[in-house]
Write a structure and sequence with these properties.
Number of helices: 34
Radius of gyration: 27 Å
Shape: globular
Oligomer: single chain
Structural class: alpha+beta
Number of strands: 25
Distance between the termini: 24 Å
Largest sheet: 6 strands, mixed
Helix content: 25-40%
Strand order of the largest sheet: 1-2-8-3-7-6
Strand content: 15-25%
Length: about 950
């Protein structure tokens, strides 16, 4: 399904195809009387972002889009500087500056996140990539002046706040960000692929994160020179999207940005699309569970007319659920457990990739040969018209849904800014959509044949100890003290005050019932013509079968692998024609089967959705394959720092007999190997049944129409046999200790710590969660400030109550550099103990938490997805439907003593159980000094013995 529990790196659904042939659904489905999908042109018309532009005298380009659905404005500043602009010896500078620009400016010193949080900003962050650096936040309309002041101050008045201490502090954070990425399975492939595709010195030949050596060599003077060269207003685009219009925006932008002097204009580097003189094949070793084969080509960038057909080609080859690679390599020939293909178009070049994770026991050379043959057949014969239509529909429908948000990582502000920066056209998003929609089999074939018939760079990653990795060494540098606070220069006045923030207008929630009694919980959302449905079953991980852990996950994975009316091919193709996405997920308490679909296609999508939910066939042939994929996924979990830690902690913190202790990845490999079709049917009939279901819906269509559509396909559904029953007898948590999972050669250690509490999700933990904002719940929390900002031992640390219906342990997560593992645990223990005793939440932290929470409400519930999640949480935790509509009063009634008392009563700092995944030879001596028992477990033993051969 869309959320595949068997995925190793995020595979889509899998389907069957004959070599060299397009997939066709079984004849019985073709005869089914269903409504026809809406034409793609109808979906494209739904994507419209009206905008106006103006340019200041200093060269700052401004784009304004008005969207009054919520009293918020997305502020997005995009600079024309990315890693492609970095010369030799300065790799990573653009990304380093992204971090430096969050550490305060001359007239707003200190952490940039503090004034943003206090105004209720949401979706605030910054990113760097090959082509750009961007900063964005969505703020209440009343806080727009403050956001513009902050953005303009770091654009024009930054360097006085960049000190040696700030540079050293953020350099350490960035290096730990790099270690965190490198520490993942296949984490080093990005370096090899870029070096293999592009010649030395090519602007796209190095990663955005840069090299440790270059970062260490950065001096204060070189860093400041870099800023002066690239971050002037004439190198930037400012987008304002939301509750704003150009008449209001113009004087505000002029007020805050108009006095900033222009700087040198960024020079667009000369970029050639390199063609390798001959195929290149390289092999690298990594501590992975399965061989990965990655074939790569450099192709045109997004402004080239051939970008659109290559995007469609990638989707057909390996992006769709019914893709060629999926159908042949995974379904028919069972040579791979996961495949993908895609084109990633950047501003001046694109990168086309085909990847396969080889099924254990299969010869990688055979998989590589079949990948080449599948591509050769595609280049020779091209795609079918139906394949192109499905790829286009899926692309356009995804774009429609993604543009509901005004800001964030992918909303309307992003679409406008990308077009303005990369193409000098804020409306480029629409031209891209039209170009995609205009593709034909002939255009896709022509572009693919032109670019993918060239020699490829192929990287094969095989299991084994990593070669010596100089980049991961911790530089021999003394610890740097935290950067001192800088005084406010005050040359631009004080931070603007925030006006009256409009209260949240949470949509009215209505309840009804289908003919068979299933409760329907509905909220109307009209921003985009999309319907989102979540059928929530009272099942979840807690319902997994004792002694057969993994049954629940395997049932999830099998739901779309065939019904009594459709085979897996038909299911995949039908979703794609409709632009629909059907997927499943599971929390500790609930199993959810979801549907996202353009509302124009709601009726036929519900036919498919109901068939998947009501009539899964669990065919034996597909079950054998999916079990093999699941077992491969479990092996992959045992190579992942997070996967290992997440398996070990639940039985310790909940107690081994708690139903929540079953949350151990994709399950017990021996149990999964032995599961039968009868086991899955028994689970499905006991738990995924109408009397255990509630249906949550957000839609632009009225309740009566949605209810009638659901009644048509689900109203006569009845359960079979006895319903399942959960046992919530309390488990006995472990005594405090450290469990060290040995993962050799890890440049970082993954720390996951849990403390049992007496709390339950149904207790309504708003007071405790608000208190935790200061301890571990936000970027400005005590533990993140200490470990990341002050000590720069980590890229990020967080902690919070992991809330389930009947339990809520406190869990902290801290990936830290390996040589600071013991000191990090010691620091975390001190931070938590002091917070609960001598240094509780103070008035500044209290005011920031309360004010930020209230002011952020409108931004937090801007999208239908956020509303849908809130509706489900309210129901699970037995809160009223107007919980969020009335939550402001609860925040306003809180007091500082109440918050401190609540978290002190809930949490005992001496009860933490610590799980550490790292290199035992480096880490254990550090842990032995902490005064707790240390147990060492090998990574391969975490899931128990492997299944016997043949299972």
């Amino acid at each position: 399904m869309r959320i595949k529990s068997v995925a190793l790196t995020g595979a889509a659904a899998l389907a069957f195809v004959l070599p060299g042939q397009a997939v066709s659904a079984q004849t019985a489905v073709k005869a089914a009387a269903t409504a026809k999908p809406a034409p793609v042109s109808t979906l494209v018309k739904a994507v419209d972002i009206p905008y106006q532009t103006f340019t200041l005298k200093n060269g700052l380009r401004v784009v304004v889009h008005t969207d009054r659905k919520a009293p918020v404005v997305a502020v997005s500043v995009w600079y024309d500087v990315g890693s492609k602009h970095e010369p030799k010896g300065k790799t990573g500078f653009a990304h380093l500056f992204e971090h430096l620009m969050f550490n305060g400016s001359e007239n707003a010193p200190g952490d940039f996140f503090a004034p943003l949080k206090s105004v209720g900003a949401t979706d605030y962050n910054g990113t760097t990539y090959f082509d750009r650096t961007n900063y964005f936040e969505t703020v209440p309309t009343a806080a727009l002046d403050r956001a513009l002041f902050l953005e303009s101050d770091r654009m024009g008045y930054l360097l006085g706040a960049v000190t040696q201490s700030v540079l050293d502090e953020q350099r350490g954070v960035v290096q730990n960000e790099k270690r965190q990425g490198d520490n993942q399975p296949y984490g080093l492939t990005q370096y090899k692929i870029l070096e293999g595709l592009f010649p030395a010195g090519h602007p796209y030949a190095h990663t955005t994160i840069g090299s440790m050596t270059d970062l260490d060599a950065a001096t204060l003077d070189t860093v400041k020179d870099w800023f002066r060269q690239h971050y002037g207003p004439n190198n930037a685009v400012l987008v304002l999207a939301g509750d704003i219009d150009v008449a209001t925006a113009k004087p505000l932008v002029e007020k805050y940005f108009g006095a900033i002097q222009p700087g040198p204009k960024s020079v667009l580097p000369t970029v050639a699309i390199p063609t390798l003189p001959a195929p290149v094949n390289e092999v690298m070793k990594d501590r992975v569970a399965a061989v990965m084969i990655s074939r790569n080509w450099a192709v045109p960038g997004l402004n080239d007319p051939e970008s659109a057909p290559l995007v469609v080609a990638g989707s057909i080859l390996g992006g769709l659920a019914s893709s060629r690679l999926d159908n042949i390599l995974v379904k028919q020939e069972k040579l791979a457990v996961q495949v993908s293909a895609s084109d990633r178009p950047f501003a001046q070049v694109g990168m086309f990739n085909m990847t396969a994770i080889v099924r254990p026991g299969v010869d990688p050379a055979l998989v590589d040969k079949r990948m080449q043959e599948i591509l050769a057949d595609f280049l020779k014969n091209g795609p079918t018209a139906d394949e192109v239509r499905r790829a286009v529909t899926r692309f356009v429908s995804g774009r429609v849904e993604g543009l509901e948000s005004v800001g964030g990582f992918g909303g309307k502000a992003v679409a406008l800014a990308e077009g303005a920066l990369y193409s000098n056209d804020p409306g480029k998003y629409k031209k891209q959509l039209l170009a995609i929609a205009a593709q034909t089999p002939a255009t896709v074939k022509a572009a693919a044949d032109k670019w993918l018939s060239r020699p490829a760079y192929t990287l094969t990653v095989v299991p084994g100890a990593r070669d010596a990795y100089e980049e991961a060494k911790v530089p021999p540098r003394a610890d740097v003290p935290a950067a001192p606070d800088q005084p406010v220069k005050g040359t631009r006045g004080s931070l603007p005050e925030v006006g009256e923030v409009k209260p949240l207008s949470f949509p009215a929630v209505e309840r009804s019932r289908l003919a068979n009694g299933i409760e329907l919980i509905y909220a109307q959302r009209t921003a985009v013509p999309v319907t989102q449905i979540a059928m929530s079953f009272d099942a979840g991980i807690a319902a997994d079968v004792p002694g057969k852990l993994g049954t629940q996950r395997l049932v999830q994975s099998m739901l779309d692998e065939g019904t009594t009316h459709r085979n897996t091919i038909a299911i995949a193709e039908e979703q794609e024609r409709l632009g629909a996405s059907i997927g499943s997920s599971a929390s500790n308490d609930r199993t959810v089967v979801g549907l996202d679909v353009p509302s124009a296609n709601l009726a036929p999508a519900l036919d498919l959705y109901a068939d998947i939910v009501r009539n899964p066939a669990f065919p034996d042939a597909e079950l054998a394959r999916v079990k093999a994929q699941t077992l491969a996924g479990i092996k992959q979990e045992l190579t992942s720092p997070q996967g290992l830690a997440s398996r070990v902690l639940p039985p310790l913190v909940y107690g081994p007999t708690s139903p929540y202790a079953k949350a151990q990845g994709a399950g017990d490999p021996r149990a999964v190997a032995a599961l039968t079709r009868a086991d899955l049917i028994a689970f499905q009939q006991a738990w995924l049944r109408p009397d255990k279901a509630k249906i949550f819906v957000t839609s632009d269509r009225p309740l009566a129409e949605v209810k009638a559509a659901l009644d048509r396909v689900l109203g006569d559904w009845r359960g079979t046999g006895a319903a399942g029953v959960k046992n919530f007898a309390a488990g006995q948590p472990s005594a405090p200790k450290i469990v060290l999972v040995n993962r050799p050669d890890s440049p970082q250690s993954m720390i996951l710590a849990g403390a049992p509490t007496g709390l339950k999700g149904i207790d309504n933990l708003l007071v405790q969660n608000t208190a935790n904002d200061a301890l571990g719940g936000s970027f400005l929390s005590r533990i993140n400030t200490d470990i990341r900002e002050n000590k720069h031992w980590s890229y990020g640390v967080r902690g919070g109550f992991q809330t389930s219906e009947f339990a809520a342990p406190y869990v902290m997560s801290a990936p830290v550099q390996a040589d600071k593992t013991g000191p990090s645990i010691d620091a975390l223990r001190t931070d938590v103990t002091e917070f609960l005793t001598t240094k509780p939440m103070d008035q500044v932290e209290f005011d920031r938490a309360i004010t930020g929470a209230i002011r952020s409400l409108s931004g937090s519930f801007e999208t239908s997805g956020a509303v849908l999640s809130a509706m489900q949480a309210n129901d699970l935790f037995r809160r009223p439907d107007d919980y969020y509509a009335t939550i402001t009063r609860r925040y306003q009634a809180m007091t500082l003593p109440e918050l401190n008392k609540s978290i002190e009563a809930a949490l005992n700092p001496r009860q933490f159980i610590w799980v550490v995944v790292g290199d035992a030879k480096t880490v254990k001596p550090q842990l032995d000094t902490l005064g707790l028992p240390v147990e060492v477990v090998e990574a391969a033993d975490v899931a128990g013995p492997a299944p016997a051969a043949g299972q």
